[in-house]
Every structure is written in structure tokens, then in C-alpha cells.
Amino acid sequence: MSQLLELIQNQHPFNLLTEEQCNRLFQHSSIKDYKKNQFIIHEDQDNPGIYFLVHGLAKNVMHRSNGKQLSLRFYYPGELIGIMVMLTSEDLRFSVEALEDSKVLAFNRNTFLEVMNQNQSFSKLMLDGISQLMKSLYQEIKYKDQDEDEQKNLFKRRVKEFMEAPVTIRPEQSLMDAVRLMEEESVGGLIVTDASNDLMGVLSFMDVFKAYKDGNFSCTVAQYMSTEPYVVTQTDFIFDGVSYLKNVPNGIIPVVNKQRTIGVLRQTSFLNMQDSVYFDLRHQISTATNFEQVKQLSPRYNKTFQQFVQTLLDEQMYAYDVTELISSYNDELHKQIIHLAEDAMVQAGYGTPPINYCFIVMGSEGRKEQAFSTDQDNGLILADYTHLSEEDQLQIDTYFKRFGEKINDMLDQCGFPYCTGNIMAREPKWRQSLSSWYETITHWINKKDAEEIRDFTIFIDFRPITGDFSLAYSLRDFLTERMQRSLNLHQLLMKDTLRFRVPVQPFGRIQGTGKQRELNLKKSAIMQIVNAVRIYAIKHGIDEVHTIKRLDKLKQNERFHPRDVENAKLALHRLLKLRLEINLEQLRNDVPLSNNYSLLQTSKQERKAVREALMIAKRLQQVLEISYNRNRVV
């Protein structure tokens, strides 16, 4: 108990109190435990107390006159419960319910009020918290309305809005069966699946026409189907599908969840879609025949793409959606570079890949949160090959070492600099077989080395780009299960992210460095939000890697309150928007790219927006800190 009290006394906001005030406040406090679904405060309770949440999760509920309840917010470790209930009108009735087993430090209500009256800084902080909640309600309504107006924007819409039910056929069925099915369903193509509905390929009417020209209608679907179709997922932006179908008008696109087919896109799905230069750029990437063509299309060197991104920002598109679009564009660049690297390996006498592989990206590209100022974070998952002869193993090692080097070299020339930490496919540590990756993950989770943890943090957000995706899916399942079970890992990740403090003081003054009072937007702000959300996602077994999708899952699973999710999204939008605008300005002026933001060269309104975003990031970090310290003493 004494250790816990000492810990809490040193936490904000209690560190604002004098020693005498602190002793008086804690003298009559007590530890209380509440089980899941128990009320910490009930609406009918007279003079409810003030509580400090040591660990657990609680929900504030407002009871409305129509009998319905409105969830206002969640309470996380390190937060005070009961201030809003105490300071609002008796006409407003609130309850606070434990969403999981929780431990609180209960304060005497009258003593708490006396201390508030005596300490203006402490009192101001309490009142500012209530004010901030009301402000967040306004911001939520404001951006919700704006979002509804923007739903017609092509770059805000997802595949699931347009996909149709798939018409499927088995590979062993005859081509005549396929023709009859196309006629019955009035479709120009079929999705070929196995008995488990896993994708095997697609059969378009052009494939049927080829069989007709060959005079071969007694064959099976398997003989003429396309076995490596272009695929999308239901959560992808629709531009991924439009870009492909614009240039392959007779094509059909399976919509998959891992390997399972759940829908289909065809050109008729987009009858009223607007045109965009973006689709033309993506098509130019996919049809590029040499490296110089690809290089000229990279975001770093292509002025048309840069202007396109600027237009999206000017049209008030959410910046986290813009970074997802940039990342999808970069995916196309990566795929074409890998294709060119395979061709180069053949020309150099190495031949084709000796075993299956999956190329993965990590870090911001893995999360689909990439700006213009970024380096490489990538790797390779190889199919297991230790059962082969030593000669074959040596050949495989040699092939993929050189293959990784070619890919990394071309990416560097395209404006994706080599990773200073050597997190690249050319390095043995980041180029392993599936079984070897399993062993590496187990080692990372069990080891307490700080550098290993930082590497692991980047790896967690991996995503497959091209190759055998089943290798990446197997690795993701293995990783998610083991991360959720390892409480020691949660603590190490929290300790690592707390190394970098959000540079904002308790009353909102931003701490810049140097004569220009510069702030590194990525290290000092964006990554604090990303890291905090990642840790919560790991804790609750969420396998998404995109920060926004992680937030949505945390809200869906009632781990984050909807308003806290909206605040985190808003903060991320503001910080990413500023980062993109800084990068675009640097590209226009042909100066080195960086994430540094000068507090002296900005408007008062912009500084205010940055300050609010930093305060949200700081709150996320404080919740993590109290959770980390609590687990060391409780």
C-alpha cells in the first residue's frame, strides 16, 4: 500500500500538491476492488466519492429521461473518477461501471474539495478536464458532419461498398458448365474456388474465347483459368480496384478475406466513378518495363503525384486516409521493383526463385501510414527449406541474399533510403524461413534486450506485399497469439515507448529544441499515439496493423470509448497532415526531407491545433505509464 501511494503521489496531477495537501488527501484514502460490471458510482448514490483508477477499465454512463443510457467516456489507469459527477448539475444523472475487474484508490469527497479550493493549479487541471470533454463532443460532431459531406469522394470509399456476390465454379468442372453458368447469371466472368471456398483463380469470357479459338471445349475450367488474379480485400480503398479495371476492362477482381472469397468487383460496379490522374500513374507503374520508368513514378521524384496529394489535403481529406493512399501507391512500386529484380536475377544467371517467398514491409509502410520522408523497413519470409540438401540450402541462401540486395538497391534509388538500422531484406536477420521466424519471435518475446525490443516493435506491424501470402498469414497468427499471452512483453514495449516523452508541459506549453524551437513530429508525437494504440491492440489480441483500424477494433470490443477513439483519430489527422505539408514544401524547395516542425514559423491557430493533438498523445502516454508502474508495485 505504501509503495502504491508513493507511486501515485509522484504522478500528475498529484505532483502539483504541497506535501501537507498530499498527506491530508491520502490520509483517509483506501484501496477498493470492484468486479466486472459492478458500479463504482451509481446514479442513486448520495455524495459519491472521488476515485483514482489504479488498474482496470470503467465506463461513465449518463442516464437520460427516456430511460436510455448514453456512454460518455471510458476511464483508464491513472485517471480520476467522479469529478464530472461531483461538478455537474443534479439534473444530470451519472453512473460509473467497471468494465473489467478494477482497483481504485478512494478519496474522501470533502477533503478532495478542500484541497481543490486551496490549490489553484490542481483545481484548474480538474476543471480543464471537464472542459476538454465538452470540447471533444463538439469536435466529434463537427468532423462527423464533414465526413458525411465527403463520402462521395472516391478516395474515401472502400471496396465493401461496391463488391457484389461472387458467382463461383469448381476447377474440375467443364468449360461448357462455365459457359452455361455465365449465361444463366448474366456475368462476364467466374471466380474459381475449391470446396472450402478458397480462391483458386478466375475465368473471364476472354479465357473462354481463347478456348473457343483453340477448338477445345471438352476441357476443364482449370486448364484455362487465370491462377494468379489481382485481388483486393473489402477494407481496401476502391481506387485499388478502379485502377486495375480501368486498364483491364474485361477483368474481374476477387474480394478475399485471407484466401476465402467473399465478393467480386467488375467494371460495371463503378458506372458513375470519376476519373483521376492517380489511376494513370498506377497503371504506368504496373506496365513499366525498366527501372528508370519506375524511378520517375516514385513519390519522391514525380511532381504530378505530389500535386495530387496536395489537392487531397486542400480538399480536407483526412490525412490518415491520404497516407494510406500513398502507401498503396508505394505498394505498386514495390511490386514492380520486385518483378524487375526477379527478371534481373534470371539475366544474371541465378534463375527463378528456387522456393516460395513472401516480401513484407514493416513500420509506417506496413501500417499504411507513410509520408514522403521515410526509409526502408522490409524483409522476406521464405518457405521452409532446412529439409533439403546442404547444396540446395546454399543455393537458396545465395539466391535470396542477392535478390534482397537488388530490391533494396532499387528502392534506395527510388527515394526510399537504406534503413539506418539495417532492417532490410538483404540482411540475414530480416530474411528467414517461416520456422526460423517462429524461433526469432519466441526469442524476441523472451529476451529483455532494449535493441531487440525496438526491432521487434518495427516488425510487429509487418504486412505482405507480394509472393505467398499464406506465409505471412501463418506468421501473423503465430505472432498475435504469443504477444497477447506475454505480459512481460507488454511491459517491455511500454518501457520502450516511454523513453520518448511527448514534449508538452501540464498546461500546454510545447517544448521545442534549438533556436527555431523545432519539434520532430514523428518521434515526439505521431509515434507516441501509434505505439500506445499498438500496445493496447496487442494486449487485446487484435491482429490489425493500421492504427485507425486498431482504434476501430478497440472501440468495437469496448476497450476504448468511442470519444477517445475520435480524439486519437483527430490528433493523428492533424499531426500527419502537418507532416505531409512540411514534406511537400521541402520537395518544392528541393531541400532534404525531414519531420522537423518549427514552432516559431507558424500561426497561433496552427500551434493551438498542434498543442491539442500533443495533449491527446500525452494522455495516451500517461495511461500507459501508470499501467507500467502499477504492474511493478501492485
From TrEMBL:
| Residues annotated as domain Cyclic nucleotide-binding | 13-116
Which domain of life does the protein's organism represent? Bacteria
Boundaries of every CBS domain copy: 162-218
SMART domains recorded: CBS, cNMP
Query: What Gene3D superfamilies would the database entry show?
Result: CBS-domain (3.10.580.10), Jelly Rolls (2.60.120.10)
Q: Name one GO molecular function term.
A: [protein-PII] uridylyltransferase activity
Alphabetical keyword list: Activator, CBS domain
The name of this protein is Cyclic nucleotide-binding protein
Query: What organism is recorded for this protein?
Result: Pontibacillus halophilus JSM 076056 = DSM 19796
